[in-house]
Write a structure and sequence with these properties.
single chain; alpha/beta; globular; binds glycinamide ribonucleotide; Phosphoribosylglycinamide formyltransferase
Length: 192
């Protein structure tokens, strides 16, 4: 069983989807840690409820990004984490974690990358009035939502779509796609 850590900054619904998949024996991975950079994030409550240990850690409490990530790295090592799963972690991964976990960090993004990278991808797609947007799972490199694509799923924008209805559709796709992709990564010997 692969040991994974999930990083989140907000609501943590994707973290929850992974927790639920693990509970339903649909994930051959053990979520050993939830890392959160926002002390008020709902993801922390979800972790408590699920019995997943959480590391709540704010970059503001460290002199540099390197120091911040070194602290995280130590906890990841202590927990034997083999794969880092970013799930709404709104921060660029720095050199310290990238080099320690080369090819073993994945992210989910609510658009068909390379379109609409960065913040509020759903809002960006909605404003652009595209007919199709979607969800991407990719390996993480030093860029913002760049890195080799692992999986994508399209979501159609309907004629009377609202920002809210689009967001709901995207999240629904994310919650199915992410556990499926993580399961695949954890059950094969490629990279992770
Ligand atoms: C998700 O839609 C995820 O794709 C997005 O943040 C949301 C987090 O929701 N991530 C990014 O935009 C990364 N660039 P959640 O906290 O409910 O899982």
């Amino acid at each position: 069983m692969k040991k994974i850590a999930v990083f989140a900054s907000g609501s943590g619904s994707n973290f929850q989807a992974l927790v639920d998949a693990a509970k339903a024996n649909q994930l051959s991975a053990e979520i050993v840690l939830m890392v959160c950079d926002k002390p008020r994030a709902y993801a922390i409550e979800r972790a408590d409820k699920a019995g997943v240990p959480s590391l709540v850690i704010s970059p503001k409490d460290f002199a540099s990004k390197t120091d911040y990530e070194k602290e995280i790295l130590q906890k990841l090592n202590e927990s034997g984490v083999e794969l880092i799963v970013l799930a709404g972690y709104m921060r660029l991964i720095g050199e310290t974690l990238l080099s320690a976990y080369e090819g073993r960090i994945v992210n989910i993004h609510p658009s068909l990358l390379p379109s609409f990278a960065g913040k509020d991808a759903i809002g960006q797609a909605f404003q652009a009035k595209v007919k199709i947007t979607g969800v991407t799972v990719h390996y993480v490199d030093e860029g913002m939502d760049t890195g080799p694509i692992i999986a994508q799923e399209a979501v159609k924008m309907d004629e009377h779509e609202t920002r809210e209805s689009l967001e709901a559709k995207i999240h629904q796709v994310e919650h199915l796609l992410y556990p499926r992709v993580i399961q695949k990564l954890c059950s094969t010997d490629r990279k992770v």
